[in-house]
Write a structure and sequence with these properties.
The complex is a heterotrimer of chains A (260), B (353) and C (280). Chain A has 260 residues and is mainly alpha-helical. Chain A has 11 helices and no strands. In chain A, helix 6 crosses helix 8 and helix 10 packs antiparallel against helix 11. The longest helix of chain A is centred in the N-terminal third of the chain and has 34 residues. Chain B is built from 10 helices and 20 strands. In chain B, helix 6 links the parallel strand 7 and strand 8. In chain B, helix 4 crosses helix 5. Chain C has 13 helices and 2 strands, in the order αββαααααααααααα. In chain C, helix 8 packs antiparallel against helix 9. In chain C, strand 1 and strand 2 form a beta hairpin. Classes of the chains: A mainly alpha (260), B alpha+beta (353), C mainly alpha (280). At the A-C interface, helix 1, helix 3, helix 4, helix 5 and helix 6 of A face helix 1, helix 3, helix 4, helix 5 and helix 6 of C.
Chain lengths: 260, 353, 280
C-alpha cells in the first residue's frame, strides 16, 4: 500500500499543479518585469499595477463591475432563496418544469446565452446598458443562490416552521423569525457567491455591454489587441476579489455545518 | 380531573381527512373533556397524528367539524389557536438560546420584552432548567431539551397541550421519568393533555382515557383498564397487550372451536370470538378441568413482568402464556412439546359483547 | 366556503417564473424566431423564411466546425475522465473525510477565477520562448510549438473542466459502501477485478455526469479554441461570435446556436439515461 500511496500523492500534486498553475503564474507574472516572461524570471516590479491602475477606464470598469455584482447578488439571492423556499415548502403541478427553469441556465453555453440576451435586450432597448448586464447575470447567478439556500433548508427540521405557527406566528412572522434566521449564513454565502459569479463573467457581459464595460470584458478586449502584462495585474486583483468572496462564502458554509 | 358533566372542550363531529385518494381519518366522532389526559394510540398510519394536527390547525378536515370551547375551528389558521404542540422532533429553534425558545410564543403574541422574559424564566425554574437559560439547544441533554419543549409550549398558559410522541427519542430510563413529570404536570395545571403515541405502556401509564385507532377510525375508546381487559375487536385485542383469540360457535354456554369445546361466560348462541389474556393462561402437561386447548411449545421470551411462552395450535394460531421463572423451571418445555393451555372460563372476554 | 386569497406562496413562487421567464425563456424563444428573420440592408426584418437555415446548413465550413467542435468535446470528456480518475480514486479511498472535503473545496476555487486570465497565463507559459520551453531547452529538447494548435486548445479545456470532473467522480466514489469493496476483496477478487466489476459500476452515475459536464463545457467554450487553439479552424462558438460581432448577421448566428442547443440536449438526454439507467 505504501508505494501506491506515494504515487497517489504525486499524481494528485501533479493534477493540482496543472489546475492551479495558470492562477499562480498570473500572480507571479504580474510582479515580473519581463513583457514576455520566461525562465529565469526577470526582476520584481509593481510597474504593471501602477500602469494598469493609472488608467481611468480601469477605474470606470471596476466601478461598473462592482455595481453590477452588488445589484446582481441581491436580486439573484432573493430569487434563489424564494425558489428554494418554494421547493422546500410546496408541492404543485409542473414542479419539475419549475425546478428545471431554476437550474438549467448554467448548462447553456455562455456564448449562446450572450447571443440570445443581446438579441432580446436590443429588442427591448436595454442592450449596451448596465441594466442589461445585471439582467443577464441574475439569470446566470440565481441557480447558485437557489442551490445554496436549498441545501440549508434541507438541513432544517421540517416541523420548525410549523412549530412557529403553532406558537402563534403567522406565515410572515414564521418567515421573519424562523426561516430567515435559520438560513442566515446560507443567504450571506449566496450573496458572496453570486457576486463572485457576476464579477468574473465576461462572455455574456461582452455581448451585452456595449460601451459600459466591466473589468473582465475589458481584459477580453485588451487580450484581443496588444497583449500586455497589465492583464496579470488586473487579473490578480480580480482574482483576489472573487477569492475573498468565495472564501467568505465557504467559511460561512463550514461554520453552519459545525452549528448543526 | 376530567369532568364529563360540563360541555366538552373539543368535539369532533364526523370528521374526515383525505390526502388525495388516501383517507387518513374517517368519520371521527369524539369529545375531549376539560382537564382530561387523553391518549391516541395505534400503529403508524392509523390517523392519530393527523387527528392531532387537525386539532392544531396544521391540517384542515376535508369534511365534518371540529369545535374547541364551543367554537368551530375548521378554518382557523394555526397561529390563531391556542393549541401548543410538543413535537416528536421537539422542533426547538437551534439559532435561539433556551430562554429565547421558551419566550417565543409570548413574543409572537406581542408580550413586552421584560414581562415575557420573566414568565419564561419562571417556567424554566419550574422545569428545573434554571441556569441553562443562555445555553444553546445543542448544548443540552435529551431530557433537558424535552423540558425546554414543554416549557415553550406551556408558557402561554394554554387550556390544552398537544403531545406528538414526545418521548420516542428518549432512552428507556428517561421515558419512565418523563412519564412521571408529565402526569404530575397535568394534575398540577389541570389542563387537557392530548397525547399521541404508538406505545401502549406510555398510553396506559399516563392517560385517563385511551383512544385506539386503526385505519383512520376509532377502534375503541375507554379507560386503560377497560380496554386492556375488554377489547372490542380482534384489532384492539391484537394491538393492546398479549392476548390470545379463539373463534367458534357458541351453543348453550359452550364454544365449539377447531381446538375443541370450551366453556365461555354467559352469551347468546352464534358465532363468537373470545379473548384470553396471556397472564391468565396456565400451562400444564396433563389435561386440567374447564377451559383448555392443546398446543405445541415454540419458544420463550423474558419480558419485564415474567416470561412469555409462545405456542402454536394445530391450526397454526399463535398462543401466548405468561409464566414465572419457577414455573418455567418445572415445565422445562422443549420445542415442539405439547401442553395444555387452560384458563378460568369466566376470565375470558367475549368480543363484540 | 370561499377561501381568502393568500399572497404568501406567490411572493416566493413568482420571482423565478417572472425573471427566468422574461430573461431566459423569452430570449431563447426569441432567438429561435430570429433564425427565421431576414437581413436586408444591414437591418433585420421579421419574416418566416428558411433562408438562414439553408445558407448555414448548406455550407461546408459550418459542418467542418460542427464536427470539429463535437470531436473536441468528446475527446475532452474522455481525456478529462481518464486524467481525473486516478486522482479521484486516491481522494475517495486514501484521504480522510476532512482531507477530502478540503481538497474538493480547493477544486471549487478555480471555478470562480477568471478563465480569461488563466488562458492568458497559459499563453505565456506555453509560448515559444516561455517557461516550459525554457525548461525543456535546458534538457536539450524543443522548442515546441504548443499554442495555436489542438494541443493548446486541449490544455485550455482541461483547465476548465478537470476540477469539476474530479469533484463529480470523487463524490460518487466516496459514496460507495466500503463493505462492498471489502466483500469483493474477501471473495478473492484482485484489486483490478474489484475496480472493474465493483467500483466502476457502483460509481457509474458520477463518472458519466463528470464526462457529460466536461463535454458540455468544452462544447460551449470559446476562450480555449480562440486564445489557445488559434481560432482556425473555427469551432461553433467562434462561428457564433464572428457572425454576431462582424456584420449584424444575428439570424445566422441564431441558427448555429440552435443547432448547438439541440446537440447538447440530445447528448445530455442520452447520457442521463446512461447515468441513471438500470445498473448492470
Amino acid at each position: 500500500m505504501k508505494p501506491l500511496s506515494g504515487l497517489g500523492w504525486i499524481y494528485l500534486l501533479a493534477l493540482f499543479t496543472f489546475v492551479f498553475a495558470p492562477i499562480v503564474a498570473s500572480v507571479i507574472f504580474s510582479f515580473n518585469s519581463d513583457r514576455f516572461p520566461t525562465l529565469p524570471l526577470g526582476s520584481f516590479t509593481t510597474d504593471w499595477y501602477v500602469r494598469a491602475f493609472g488608467r481611468a477606464e480601469v477605474w470606470t470598469a471596476i466601478g461598473n463591475s462592482l455595481i453590477v455584482a452588488a445589484v446582481t447578488s441581491f436580486l439573484a439571492t432573493f430569487i434563489g432563496f424564494a425558489t428554494a423556499y418554494t421547493d422546500f415548502r410546496y408541492g404543485f403541478k409542473f414542479k419539475q418544469a419549475y425546478l428545471a427553469l431554476a437550474l438549467l441556465p448554467p448548462t447553456l453555453p455562455l456564448v449562446i446565452m450572450g447571443l440570445a440576451m443581446l438579441a432580446w435586450l436590443s429588442q427591448v432597448g436595454l442592450s449596451g446598458t448596465l441594466t442589461g448586464i445585471v439582467i443577464a447575470h441574475v439569470v446566470l447567478a440565481t441557480p447558485f443562490a437557489m442551490a445554496i439556500c436549498r441545501l440549508r433548508l434541507s438541513q432544517m427540521d421540517p416541523s420548525l416552521e410549523a412549530a412557529a405557527w403553532n406558537l402563534g406566528a403567522g406565515q410572515w412572522a414564521a418567515m421573519r423569525y424562523v426561516i430567515l434566521p435559520f438560513c442566515g449564513p446560507a443567504i450571506v454565502s449566496a450573496l458572496c457567491l453570486t457576486a463572485a459569479v457576476s464579477f468574473d463573467e465576461f462572455i455574456v457581459a461582452w455581448f451585452v455591454s456595449g460601451l459600459n464595460r466591466t473589468v473582465p470584458v475589458m481584459i477580453l478586449e485588451i487580450l484581443q489587441g496588444n497583449v500586455d502584462p497589465q492583464i496579470n495585474a488586473i487579473g490578480t486583483v480580480v482574482f483576489l476579489t472573487s477569492m475573498s468572496l468565495v472564501i467568505a462564502a465557504q467559511v460561512l458554509i463550514f461554520r453552519r455545518r459545525r452549528d448543526g | 380531573m376530567a369532568d364529563p358533566t360540563t360541555e366538552p372542550l373539543v368535539s369532533f363531529r364526523s370528521v374526515h381527512k383525505a390526502f388525495g385518494t388516501y383517507v387518513a381519518v374517517k368519520s371521527l366522532d369524539l369529545d375531549i373533556h376539560r382537564g382530561e389526559f387523553i391518549a391516541f394510540m395505534g400503529p403508524s398510519g392509523c390517523g392519530k397524528t393527523t387527528t392531532l394536527r387537525m386539532l392544531a390547525g396544521l391540517e384542515a378536515p376535508t369534511s365534518g367539524t371540529i369545535t374547541i370551547g364551543g367554537k368551530v375551528m375548521n378554518d382557523v389558521p394555526p397561529h390563531q389557536r391556542d393549541t401548543p404542540l410538543v413535537w416528536q422532533s421537539l422542533a426547538l429553534f437551534p439559532f435561539l438560546s433556551v430562554v429565547e425558545n421558551v419566550e417565543f410564543g409570548l413574543r409572537m403574541r406581542g408580550v413586552a420584552p421584560k414581562e415575557r422574559r420573566d414568565r419564561a424564566m419562571l417556567w424554566l425554574e419550574r422545569m428545573q432548567l434554571k441556569g441553562f437559560e443562555t445555553r444553546r439547544i445543542d448544548q443540552l441533554s435529551g431530557g433537558q431539551r424535552q423540558r425546554v419543549a414543554l416549557a415553550r409550549s406551556l408558557v402561554t398558559e394554554p387550556e390544552m397541550l398537544l403531545l406528538d410522541e414526545p418521548l420516542s427519542a428518549l432512552d428507556a430510563h428517561l421515558v419512565i421519568r418523563m412519564q412521571g413529570v408529565l402526569t404530575r404536570l397535568q394534575k398540577e395545571l389541570g389542563i387537557t393533555f392530548v397525547y399521541v403515541t404508538h406505545s401502549q405502556s406510555e398510553a396506559f401509564a399516563m392517560a385517563d382515557r385511551v383512544v385506539i385507532m386503526g385505519n383512520g377510525e376509532i377502534a375503541q375508546v375507554g379507560r386503560p383498564q377497560e380496554i386492556f381487559r375488554g377489547p372490542k375487536s380482534r384489532f384492539v385485542a391484537e394491538f393492546v397487550g398479549r392476548n390470545n383469540i379463539l373463534g367458534g360457535t357458541v351453543k348453550a354456554g359452550m364454544l365449539e372451536t377447531a381446538q375443541g369445546v370450551v366453556p365461555v361466560p354467559a352469551v347468546r348462541d352464534g358465532k363468537a370470538e373470545i379473548v384470553v389474556a396471556a397472564d391468565r393462561v396456565t400451562v400444564s402437561g396433563a389435561r386440567p378441568e374447564g377451559a383448555a386447548i392443546r398446543a405445541s411449545f415454540l419458544s420463550e421470551e423474558f419480558a419485564g413482568t415474567g416470561i412469555i411462552c409462545y405456542f402454536e395450535t394445530a391450526d397454526g394460531a399463535e398462543w401466548k402464556a405468561q409464566v414465572t421463572e419457577s414455573q418455567l423451571a418445572t415445565l422445562q418445555p422443549e420445542s415442539g412439546q405439547e401442553f395444555w393451555l387452560s384458563w378460568n372460563a369466566n376470565s375470558a372476554h367475549v368480543m363484540g359483547g | 366556503m370561499m377561501r381568502k386569497f393568500d399572497p404568501y406562496p406567490h411572493v416566493w413562487r413568482l420571482p423565478l417564473l417572472l425573471w427566468q421567464g422574461a430573461f431566459f425563456v423569452v430570449p431563447l424563444v426569441f432567438m429561435a424566431a430570429l433564425s427565421f428573420w431576414l437581413v436586408k440592408n444591414y437591418r433585420m426584418e421579421p419574416a418566416f423564411a428558411f433562408d438562414n437555415w439553408e445558407r448555414m446548413l448548406g455550407r461546408g465550413a459550418f459542418w467542418d466546425a460542427y464536427w470539429l467542435t463535437l470531436l473536441r468535446a468528446c475527446m475532452a470528456g474522455v481525456i478529462a475522465s481518464l486524467i481525473a480518475f486516478p486522482a479521484s480514486l486516491f481522494l475517495a479511498f486514501h484521504l480522510t473525510p476532512q482531507g477530502r472535503r478540503f481538497a474538493l473545496l480547493c477544486l471549487i476555487v478555480p471555478f470562480f477565477t477568471s478563465f480569461l486570465v488563466r488562458a492568458y497565463a497559459w499563453q505565456v507559459i506555453l509560448a515559444e520562448s516561455g517557461p516550459v520551453n525554457a525548461v525543456l531547452g535546458g534538457l536539450g529538447l524543443g522548442p515546441y510549438t504548443m499554442l495555436n494548435s489542438g494541443f493548446g486548445a486541449m490544455v485550455g479545456y482541461m483547465t476548465l473542466v478537470l476540477p469539476l470532473v474530479v469533484i463529480f467522480q470523487t463524490w460518487s466514489l466516496a459514496a460507495i459502501e466500503k463493505s462492498l469493496i471489502e466483500a469483493a476483496a474477501n471473495l478473492g477478487a484482485s484489486p483490478v477485478r474489484t475496480l472493474v466489476s465493483v467500483i466502476i459500476p457502483a460509481a457509474k452515475t458520477g463518472l458519466v455526469l463528470g464526462a457529460v459536464f466536461a463535454f458540455i463545457m468544452t462544447f460551449g467554450d470559446f476562450v480555449s479554441p480562440f486564445y489557445l487553439g488559434g481560432s482556425k479552424p473555427p469551432t461553433l462558438t467562434i462561428l457564433i461570435i464572428d457572425t454576431t460581432k462582424s456584420g449584424q448577421q444575428w439570424p445566422r448566428a441564431a441558427v448555429v446556436a440552435i443547432v448547438m442547443i439541440l446537440t447538447l440536449f440530445a447528448v445530455a438526454t442520452a447520457a442521463l439515461k446512461a447515468a441513471y439507467g438500470r445498473r448492470g
